[in-house]
Amino acid sequence: MAPAGSASFFRRAGVHWMALITLAMGFFTWTVFWPTLVPYEQLGPLGSLAQYMVKNHYSVLYNGYWIAWAIHAAEALYSFRLCSRSLFSQTNDDNSRAGTQSVHQVAACASNRCYPVNQYIQSHSFVTN
């Protein structure tokens, strides 16, 4: 794993994965809550599988849907707790004039001292000049 201040510590998920998961969960929702509206014959093998599951194993689909969302929610809560307690905190920027919301920036913490990310990276030699 990369050090906490390096640029490779956080990586954004690929767009294709986000699109695939969004479409899959959308189709899952569609088959669980509106199974009569799904055009199974137009979806090829996926439609045949979905139609079989709806007709013969609907309770598995229904429970699996809620389990998938529960796992997703637990993952999000765990990530939030992990980031807020261990490595990162938010510091206010002094741009909160005239009633505008202040800008937050992530700070990297090491040895109970927090720094703005760019200062942390420079002081820990993650970036070479």
From TrEMBL:
InterPro entries hit by this protein: TMEM254
Topology in membrane: Multi-pass membrane protein
Main location group: membrane
Keyword Ligase carried by entry: no
Transmembrane segments: 17-40, 60-80
Keywords attached to this entry: Membrane, Transmembrane, Transmembrane helix
This protein's record includes keyword Transport: no
Domain of life (superkingdom): Eukaryota
GO CC aspect terms: membrane
Cellular location(s): Membrane
Entries under Pfam families matching the protein: TMEM254 (PF14934)
Protein name: Transmembrane protein 254
Organism per entry: Engystomops pustulosus (Tungara frog)
